[in-house]
Amino acid sequence: MDTNLINYKQVLKNRPYGIPDDNTWELVKTKIEDLKDGEMLIQQDYISLDPAMRGWMNDVRSYIPPVQIGEVMRAGSLGRVIRVSGKTPFKVGDYVSGWGGVQSYIITKGENFYKINPDRSSLTSYLGALGMPGMTAYFGILEVGEIKEGETVLVSGAAGAVGSIVGQIAKIKGCNVVGIAGGKSKSKYVVESLGFDSCIDYKEANLVNELKKYCPKGIDVYFDNVGGEILDTALVFLRKKARVVICGAISQYNSTGNIIGPKNYLSLLVNRASMRGMIVLDYAAEYGVAMKQISEWIQEGRIVHKEDVYEGIENFRDVFLRLFTGDKIGKLILKISK
Amino acid sequence: MDTNLINYKQVLKNRPYGIPDDNTWELVKTKIEDLKDGEMLIQQDYISLDPAMRGWMNDVRSYIPPVQIGEVMRAGSLGRVIRVSGKTPFKVGDYVSGWGGVQSYIITKGENFYKINPDRSSLTSYLGALGMPGMTAYFGILEVGEIKEGETVLVSGAAGAVGSIVGQIAKIKGCNVVGIAGGKSKSKYVVESLGFDSCIDYKEANLVNELKKYCPKGIDVYFDNVGGEILDTALVFLRKKARVVICGAISQYNSTGNIIGPKNYLSLLVNRASMRGMIVLDYAAEYGVAMKQISEWIQEGRIVHKEDVYEGIENFRDVFLRLFTGDKIGKLILKISK
After folding, report:
1. Domain ranges, residue B221
2. Which of B223, B247, B274 to mutate to test the interface with A (most CBs of A within 10 A)?
3. Are residues B148 and B41 in the same domain?
4. Do A278 and B270 touch (CB under 8 A)?
5. Which segments within chain B are labelled E, that is strand?
6. Of the candidates B265, B269, B278, which has its C-beta nearest A261's C-beta?
7. Residue A300 maps to a domain
8. What is the DSSP annotation of B259-272?
């Protein structure tokens, strides 16, 4: 055994009240244990930072159990198999993605990991357009949103990991696509690089006026990543039989008061519209189909993806908080290998 | 012409702010005009009083245009053809139901009226279980709620015109049915007369505790007639893939402040659940099927219906307000013929 290998891990120390602070996680050093038969040692290169992680820190009943105090912070990850013992599903040198958590190494038998092909697309894209965000976008807009050609689709968090792919898929399917993003440079990116028909900078513009302008017939599908007032305003513009996809509510995740409920929800009644929540894990059996399709679209230049990569496991908290300040474009990733 | 016939009508005088008051409607007397060719004179016996009427009084874009100031108040009605001119769709003596408004007579060519059979069921049942409330219940719980045998169904406004039928249909379909109603006598009626498995008196009981008791596995379908805090609490108990049918929000219709939005709406996300609005008018083409089915269930004794009938067009406002005070059981009807 190479006893020089040290595992750095971000462990949940205290459940945050509101925004995670200095006492939320602790960076812990441990030695790497010896492998048992059937186990692999994976050196993790990249950690996926996602808004959903904030939800996993609350001690509430949800779609997966909360991260417990003292546990490594749960996160998607991507790394290389560097050591194996006995018969294992992957071999040394394989690149794999899975739920490795915020730590530099993980020992696993390979459950919930899958092999990726670094020659087919960039490594980081497997945490973005070809990872959970891409899967969420694909199943969210196609299977929950049920978009049809010619419809008007509104996407919040349009410059984000999920929203950026949602809007591009909707464009491929022939929709009129309007994004909502925070700031001038993001809005410019959404239109000029991602090819949305228009993008509203919610920090500067009057949302109601802009929606009147860009969605003159109203909204057929609203893909919501943010919740709060933006959801509430979007509801006013629903067309008959509109669909609202509830994918996230990033504006509310650090809330210490009551969640803001959509006071215009009766627009669902008047317009016979629906609002449906989605969890990407439900579509796991079909990820292969979606990855193949998105990968083709990337190769054809019809889908653009961007990862915003920061370095250093010690910077985990600071980088994670960029999700909530909006200070990033595209998929937020932490590089932790040297 | 019999010039002694006088039409009494309740005309919208001022749009109400909050609860309709003495200045909202005006009782106006007019002479009956002569019939033109193809027209019929209908003497109205019964007026249907429905929560949706409150919405039609607001000057906002909705699924039908608002009632205009100076117009007869819109309402469903039931009456007899007493005079015809030329070729008409119904003959003298026919009983018909339609949108006659709050007035004692109406002259019409018969658009939006249909003939009913007084030998088949009581006259008033055609405004209740065999009228709009029955249609709303039927399509709402079966087509929007998509109930399946063995599921747990929660119904608010359980003693009301719609809720009472919703729950009975759900029982026929083999569901565990829990009602919510206001007051001890209503709750007793819901269980003992309507056959719900249980009923929660929201005025007395702790809703959370009662829902834990009666819905131990959670709620598969919530049929919402009331909105507000009851909706919010119900959301907490949704099971995976649950459906919330938004049929009404009577707790909010007279609100002068902001509507209360369901702050627990993220339960839709966690549980991959949906919330869908419905308007019964969308199902007009299928009313015949529903009427036949409900009528059979009534004859088989599997559906019980109750109409709460008050008298006098001059009492319209007082009787109408019983919808919001809850001071009635079953379908609220105003009898206006002597």
Report:
1. 132-281
2. B274
3. no
4. no
5. 6-12, 25-31, 40-48, 77-84, 95-98, 105-108, 113-115, 152-156, 176-181, 198-201, 219-224, 238-246, 274-277, 307-311, 331-335
6. B265
7. no
8. PPP-TTTTHHHHTT
pLDDT at B180 > cutoff 90: yes
Residues of chain A positioned with their CB less than 8 A from the CB of B261:
232, 260-265
Return the closest-CA partner of residue A178 out of A195, A160, A161.
Answer: A195
Residue A72 inside a domain? The answer is yes
B148 and B241 together in one domain: yes
Q: Which residue is listed with tokens 């108990």?
A: B237
CB-CB neighbors (< 8 A) of A268 in chain B: 246, 275-277
Domain identity same for A23 and A124: yes
- Interchain contact, A261 vs B264, CB within 8 Å: yes
CB contact under 8 A, B259 and A258: no
Averaged pLDDT, A259-282 = 94
Residue B6 Cα, gap to closest chain A Cα (Å): 37
Q: What is the ipTM of this complex?
A: 0.92
Contact yes or no for B276 and A268 at CB 8 A: yes
Give B8: exposed, middle or buried? Use CB within 10 Å, 0-12, 13-18, 19+: middle
**One domain, residues A328 and A237:** no
Which whole-number Å values give the CA distances from B7 to A112, B35, B101, in the listed order?
75, 14, 12
Closest residue to B268, CB basis, from A263, A271, A277: A277
In a shared domain, residues A43 and A110: yes
pLDDT of residue B202: 96
DSSP A314: G
> Chains A, B: CB contacts under 8 A, how many?
103
- The Cα–Cα gap between A148 and A174 comes to 8
Indicate whether B202 belongs to any domain.
yes
Residues of chain B found within 8 Å of residue A248, distances taken between Cβ atoms: 269
Q: Are strands A152-156 and A219-224 parallel, antiparallel or unpaired?
A: parallel
Give A82-130 pLDDT, tens digit per residue.
999 999 999 999 999 999 999 999 999 999 899 999 998 999 999 999 9
Q: Which of B236, B266, B281 corresponds to the end of one domain? A: B281
> A29 and A168: one domain?
no
Give me the CATH number covering residue B250: 3.40.50.720
Other beta carbons within 10 Å of B219: 25
The predicted model gives B322-337 an average pLDDT of 95
Query: Distance (Å, rounded) from C-alpha B202 to C-alpha B199?
Result: 9
Could you give the count of Cα atoms lying within 13 Å of B243 in the half-sphere of its Cβ?
20
Work out how many domains chain B is built from and give that number.
2
Residue B27 is predicted with a pLDDT of: 98
How do strand B198-201 and strand B176-181 relate by DSSP bridges?
parallel
Asked whether the predicted pLDDT for residue A210 surpasses 60, the reply is yes
**Are A161 and A210 in the same domain?**
yes
**Are the beta carbons of B269 and A248 separated by less than 8 Å?**
yes
Q: Is B158 within the bounds of a domain?
A: yes
B264 to chain A: closest CA residue: A261
- Cβ-defined contact of B63 to A246 (cutoff 8 Å): no
Question: Which secondary-structure segment (H or E) carries A234?
Answer: helix A228-236
Helix locations, chain B, DSSP H: 52-56, 132-139, 161-172, 184-192, 207-214, 228-236, 267-270, 287-299, 316-325
Q: What is the CATH number of the domain that holds B105?
A: 3.90.180.10
Measured CA distances, A19 to A147, A281, B218 (Å): 35, 26, 31
Alpha-carbon dihedral B13, B17, B22, B28, rounded to 10 degrees: 20
B212 and B248 in a single domain? The answer is yes
